[in-house]
Amino acid sequence: MPDFGRHIRLESENRGWILAVAAVFIVSSAWVTLVAQSNASHRLITDSAGDTLATNTRFMPQLYEVTYLLKETNFIGDETQADMTYTAQSSMHLDVVQPTQALKFNSLNLDITNFSYLLDDWMDVCLCGYQYQCMSHDCKEMVRPDGSEGAREGTMVVLLFTPVQAGQHLVVHMEYTASLVSGLARSTAFEYADPVTSQMESQVLIAASLEPFGARRMLPCMDFPNLKANFSISIQAPDDLVALSTMAEESSQPGLEPGTTLHKFGVTPKMSTYLMGVTVGHMVSSSAMSDSGKKISVWSVPTLADQHAVPLQAALQGTNFYESYTGIELPLTKLDMMAIPGKGGAVENWGLIQFDERRMLVNEATEGAYGRWSSADVVCHELSHQWFGNYVTCKDFDNISVNEGLASFVEYKCIAAAFPEMSGQALFQRATTPHGENVGVHEGPRSHAMGVDATPFVEPLLTFRALSFLSYHPELPYSKGASLWRMLEAFWDSAGQDAFRAGLRVLMQRHALGSATLENVLTALVDGVAAVSGNDDTGDMQQLRANSRLLTVPAQTAVALLQFWIDQPGFPLINVSDSGTQAAQSRFYAWGSNVTDDPFVTSGNSTWYVPLGAGQLGSQAVPGDAAAQWGELLDHSGMIPSVDTEGTILNVAGTGYYRVQYPSAHQQQLTAALRDLTSADNSTMSVLLQANAFISDITALSFANSIDPSAILDTAAAVAASPACQTGFGMHLLVMPIVEALQQLALFSHVVEADNQCRLDLYTSIQQLLGSFAQPIVDQVSQQGASTADSKYDSATYTASQNTFLYDHVKGNILLAAAFHGDAPAADLLCKLYTDSLEAGAAIIDPDLRGAAYQAAVAGIGGCSPGAPLAWNAMLSKWQTDADIQEADRGLYALPWASTDALLQQTLDISLANEKVSSRSPSNSLSAVMRNVGTNPGSGASRGADVAWQWVQDNFVEAGISQMLAVLESFPFIPSQQSLDSLSTFLTPVQTTTQAETASKARLLAKLEHNVQWVQQHISSISTQGHTSSLCQSASSMAPISS
After folding, report:
1. Do 811 and 777 touch, CB atoms closer than 8 A?
2. What are the Cα distances from residue 996, in Å, to 463, 962, 1007?
3. Can you give the pTM of this predicted structure?
């Protein structure tokens, strides 16, 4: 490390004193002048164009050298006994690119105690510090915030001793003290057995989690993603601890304090500051070597060492896949995956990826299919970032979808490559989460993104800095970005070429170790596809060129066409004409199309470049995409691939990021075709994906009031008659979207009187349909038994087909939905599983059904009513004390199904107050618990929605306005005029301080108003035409079947 005691190199000490005093006077006078000149702008220094440090820096960082000095007391688990600060030394190597005398850099909550610099290896100046030659002993006088905004965001400014010129080189040395609360921060405490004394100690890990602007909290730097530099990192830590960083350790030596070791790591490739990796603590690992010779390791605290197998498989096979797919071997010698206790989410630090231990690790004795997929999903996503996000990085966080959209797209290819039993295509299409958990931002990207993107007040992919990093809808840069790339891949690769990947490789080569914008991504894709197209004269490629304007216009024009997808919010509804040969497009709104003050809408006449593929849904369907006919819709209306023949569907393999509204007769034909769907293996995947898109369109259009909602019941009946609905593929892609729609219909039906005939018929129909979906599962469990050996998911022996894996993935959700809506066989089965486990232990329950059994017991259904309060207490104890993280989570998500008001109230109080919600569960678990309480139909209690709504009003301020508004957006309000009046009255005086909060208020009211009108039209006894609604008629025709 540099010597921080450097002096100004003068001929004598006396002369040094004289010049130092003079320099203090000169610098101080300059500060006074500078401040006086900046009063108008309230900034100490403003670039001439008002540009930010990221876009108009006078310096370009080349290298950061930093040493972190950690000591034993930093790792004590009890914060009241631990030392919560550390010291560090750093050197920032900067090339001067524009003349200036002011150095601006980022530093937030760093207590700088020494600041000196070396200019061109000859002028060594100490501006502040403890040396007697320094110009000041107080660095706060010399290193100042760049105005009020700089103080808030951590932008500092220093006036150098003399001006510097372009071409010069500056090395800035600093010593500082920082807190272990953020940036480089302590994990949740864990129990560690001392190997010598065998005594249990409370310990923490210390790790860096820096995205987006956290690096400035642990290192003075130019903290923006486009300002890349090399890093040389050293860490002093107690001798018995493991220290990890981005690169492998090169050397070690005794530390400055007794009992410590100084670890020096290799110099990194050029990378963004937020990707710097540091983790220290008691850790153990499991490792394997990749095909290219990289050491791939999974790390955790010692007690979880037996849960590494699944993430290690994902990391190892994922690394092999990404290197093959991109053609790029990372400039790293190793990749570490670190499971952090209590961490929310994950972060893609280069070479040292950090994860929430709950999400990455898998206890193969207690976790089911969802846990395996969840681990594969998060590992493949963060691993994808090592290429898409680290090797090529977004230029700024306005373009965050460069990182997140591409990573969320490619991760599903990684999942399929690493785990053959997991269908990447099916899992991309939609997500199924057990136990009422929230869907992650990149889980099931297509359905997840379309659900969010169909509402008002959603931002475009190219977002605005004023919103802050991912502050509105984080699902969009992840899932919408991924869905856009998947749609373009399906179109461009339809000629049998790997054209889309060629475009990605152009991106990686063109911006290697650099940064890119979304426009750069589009340009690279267009150039790559054009190159493949130009070198291929096959008939399929000639047909593709004939059908695609993108391949026949100049690249700049093609990029401009695609730019509509990133510059405007939402997605199109394709309204097919009666002839089936033409269509018109307009923005699709699930609700809220009448909102007039949406700041993201610049025009009410949104259009997109839409690639449209026509395939077959019925018996004429050809496996794969061979029968697809492609075309493009460029304007508000135009010609499309013909859908005038029976069974033709306008969304090949469900890859289109749009919804389709067909003429009524054609919609009925497609609905009838669902009855003939089969699914024996993966060969029918393309057709099932098309069916999923059609079903999703039917349910979305029905609830948007664009088509008659009786179509939901008609579609559900067709799916129930389909042989495919009894298979894993069919359950995931066909049954689950219907189950979710039926649950929403059931919720809506509660708005009218209990003896209302439409409500009775509708509820009976829903019960019948859900029961028919659950019955094959009940039969299978009854025949084969629900118990399972602990080794069901043992990686050493586990084998399953994609069909079996998807079946296990969703069966608990289907059983639970049926049981909660009055299906006796499903309820009895789940209750029996729980009661049997009271004697034999939870391990006898199939892990894929365990969470559903816990929820049924707490709800008191299927004969479990007498023991429901005891079951609730058992689940509370499980959540708070069970050492198994997966089992603890099952306990948490069972609590909202309590059968009394008092227990529901207690559940919500615990979710708000107990720190375990953030340490052992997702950071957004409060919204999931709230949604589940609100969905609780009540059994010996009020409706859960009533209890939850009262709780929201009582705790609104304490929980925080932003958090509670976000929670309310997923709250299942009963859509009655009374609910709307209550919400409006409550929100009117709420003072919002951000655009996000204002938008949340508007969305809440618009959504509930739409739903109230919907229910009044379709479920209340008389419609505007004076007749019972079509939905009620359809329910009436089905109801006698169940009776």
Report:
1. yes
2. 13, 8, 16
3. 0.93
Q: Rounded to 5 degrees, what are φ and ψ at 161?
A: -60, -40
How far apart are alpha carbons 830 and 861 in whole angstroms?
Answer: 9
Confidence of residue 785 (pLDDT cuts 50, 70, 90): low
Q: How far apart are the first and last CA of the chain?
A: 82
913-969 pLDDT tens trace? 654 444 344 445 777 888 889 888 876 667 888 898 999 999 888 878 888 888 888
Residue 500 has pLDDT above 90, yes or no: yes
Residues 6+ apart with CB under 8 A from 250: 264, 265, 266
Each residue's pLDDT tens digit, 370-394: 999 999 999 999 999 999 999 999 9
pLDDT tens digits, 703-727: 999 999 999 999 999 999 999 999 9
Residue 221: helix, strand or coil by DSSP?
A: strand
Tokens representing 100 are 């200036």
- Cα separation, 746 vs 763, in Å, equals 6
Residue 289 pairs in a beta bridge with: 295
Q: Strands 85-96, 144-145: parallel, antiparallel or unpaired by DSSP?
A: unpaired
Average pLDDT over residues 885-909: 90
At 461, list the tokens.
């992919």
Calculate helix-pair angle for 847-859, 824-840, nearest 10 degrees.
Answer: 100
Which class for 865: exposed (0-12), middle (13-18), buried (19 or more C-beta within 10 A)? middle
Q: Kindly write down the DSSP assignment for every residue of 844-911, as one continuous string.
A: GS-HHHHHHHHHHHHHT-TT-GGGHHHHHHHHHHHHHH-S-HHHHHHHHHHGGG-SSHHHHHHHHHHH
Asked whether 149 and 43 are in contact (CB, 8 A), the reply is: yes
Q: Which of 546, 973, 975, 935 is nearest to 743 (CA)?
A: 935
For residue 155, which phi and psi values (nearest 5 degrees)? -110, 120
Reported in sequence order, the residue ranges of 204-248 that DSSP labels E, i.e. its strands, are: 206-208, 230-238, 242-245
For residues 336 and 353, the answer to whether their CB atoms sit within 8 Å is: yes
Phi, psi (deg, nearest 5) at residue 247: -100, 165
Measured distance CA(993)–CA(206) in Å, rounded: 34
For tokens 């603890």, the residue is: 888
